[in-house]
Amino acid sequence: MTSRYIAAIDQGTTSTRCMIFDAGGAVVAFARTEHRQIYPRPGWVEHDALEIWANVERVVGQALTTAGVKAGDLAAVGITNQRETTLLWDRTTGAPIAGAIVWQDTRTAGIVEALARDGGQDRFRAICGLPLATYFSGPKIAWLLDHVDGARARAERGEVLFGTIDAWLIWKLTGRHLTDVTNASRTMLMNLETLDWDDALLEAMTVPRAMLPDIRPSAEVYGVARGVLEGVPVAAALGDQQAALFGQTCFSPGEGKCTYGTGNFLLVNTGTEAVQSRHGLLTTLAYRIGAAPAVYALEGSIAVTGSLVQWLRDNLAFINTAAEVEALAAGVADNGGCYLVPAFSGLFAPHWRPDARGVITGLTGYVTRGHIARAALEAVAWQTREVVDAMAADSGRALAVLKVDGGMTANALLMRFQADVLDAPVVKPHIAETTCLGAAYAAGLAVGFWPDLAALRAQWKQDAVWTPSMPAAEREREYGQWKKAVQRTLAWASPDG
Predict the structure, then answer these.
(1) Which residues neighbour 464 within 8 Å (Cβ) at sequence distance 6 or greater?
(2) Is 165 a residue whose pLDDT tops 70?
(3) Does 172 have pLDDT greater than 90?
């Protein structure tokens, strides 16, 4: 292999990154830029897909410049992306027909409620592994087809295409209409056993098959890129949380990780078996490498964690930069009796309550900005505890250690508190941005840049460990208060928002 590097594009909820790695898995270059969050109405969240594409071109160019390399020096590029975000575009012109509906958006609550009248929230879980929720792409597609003039008829003729963000980027790079199994598994439209679109699900959600991309493995050469990556094989796609699982080298059943990003996402590898959850978790695809059998995972998804700090910064002006939240929270000894539950778009795992809305409770005249900042960080840890408890209930096995990654792992106060509330060590890898690393690893496997999974596992290195020190009585008392605060969020919003 003459090419010396692998690139990864990480198109996330709030920003787009490009990272370039060498054969040892070390970071050679990094570039990042944010994009707008568009809020047309309460509960609605959109992105501009053309802005996202322009940002992809920008960060790729910046990363190549920083590394001092050309596109020809790359063996391949992998893609990882925000999942469930739903985009429709014109097959001929490539122009989006509407704003991309972001995974956090709740406008489909009425569609979800109508679908649940016949069979309840778990109506389709046995087929697709997911509960009925506004989170997933299928209802979003239906909403767009019903609200954009002429969209449904054009989609039935194959003139309008659907894609999650991975499919949009593959289309822009190669001109091919493809997605991978991990992203397809988040639509509520894919059958977990056949790994194909399911006719019964398509009929229930009134989604025409003609508009859907082909479903491919996570690591495979999809095509050759044009433009800024001219000639580079596009060789992997993984939803961001599956990419992080792959980047953490969780290749064996029982191994798992938690990513701290816009939201928190805890995944545990369950091997080649799709395990159905009894405690509010999702059954999803972990990855599929070429023609090898698909690997599945259980997942707990939390909607608002890192974006909560962004909210403190942008909406409340408590801080000027996200990094300042740690110092503000560390300025007080505890939360002052204040609890913040950020159910801005409802509650995800393990509750699945789209009717929930955020609360700050326990307020007294004693509470300051510092207490609220600390309550925000604690909310991240308590929400993770709820998902870990659900994982233990499903598996019958207590958590021994939590591998963590993502931007919020730089917050040592949060990581210490996370270890305390879990009563388990929290371990951070040397490369915290494992979403990019996972996409790079998968692309490298597809083109032979790395030989096998064992070679990738040998590259994983530990960077930091936090161990619990909170007394058990305090931990359970505070957890009880958190649960009381969660109850205050429920049944606030009506299905129509």
Answers:
(1) 415, 427, 428
(2) yes
(3) yes
In the predicted structure, residue 254 carries a pLDDT above the cut 70? yes
Dihedral (CA of 391, 394, 399, 402) sign: negative
Q: Assess whether pLDDT exceeds 50 at residue 1.
A: no
Tokens of 39: 């809020």
Query: CB neighbours of 236 closer than 8 A, spacing ≥ 6?
Result: 76, 78, 79, 180, 218, 219, 220, 439, 440, 442, 443, 445, 446
Q: Is the peptide bond before 350 cis (omega within 30 degrees of 0)?
A: yes
What residues does 180 pair with on adjacent strands?
Answer: 216
pLDDT of residue 495: 56
pLDDT at 81 over 80: yes
Q: How many CB atoms lie within 10 A of CB 273?
A: 10
Phi, psi of 461 (to 5 degrees): -130, 140
Which residues, including other chains, have CB under 8 Å from residue 228's CB and lie 6 or more apart?
57, 60, 61, 64, 71
In the numeric block, the tokens 């801005």 are attached to 344
Tell me the C-alpha to C-alpha distance, in Å, between residue 228 and each of 34, 70, 131, 252.
19, 10, 40, 36
Q: Is the distance from CB of 301 to CB of 259 less than 8 angstroms?
A: no
HSE toward the beta carbon, residue 2, CA cutoff 13 A:
3
Please answer whether residues 174 and 223 qualify as being in contact, where contact means their C-beta atoms are separated by less than 8 angstroms. yes
> Which segments of 308-373 are extended strands (E)?
339-341, 359-361
CA atoms within 13 A on the CB side of 97: 24
The predicted-structure confidence for 107-162, as pLDDT tens digits, reads as follows: 999 999 999 998 888 899 999 999 898 989 999 999 999 999 999 999 999 999 99
- Long-range CB pairs of 151-159, under 8 A, 24+ apart, other chains included: 151/88, 151/97, 151/98, 152/206, 152/208, 155/88, 155/208, 155/210, 155/211, 156/208, 156/210, 156/211, 157/210, 158/91, 158/208, 158/210, 158/211, 159/90, 159/91, 159/92
- Encoded amino acid at 328, one letter: L
- The CA–CA distances, whole Å, from 190 to 101, 140, 199, 460, 471 equal 19, 15, 9, 32, 45
The predicted pLDDT at position 427 comes to: 92
**DSSP for 89-104?**
EETTT--BSSPEEPTT
Q: What is the pLDDT of residues 341-352, one digit of tens each?
A: 999 988 988 888
Closest to 333 in 3D by CA, of 302, 366, 297, 361: 366
Q: Residue 497 pLDDT more than 60?
A: no
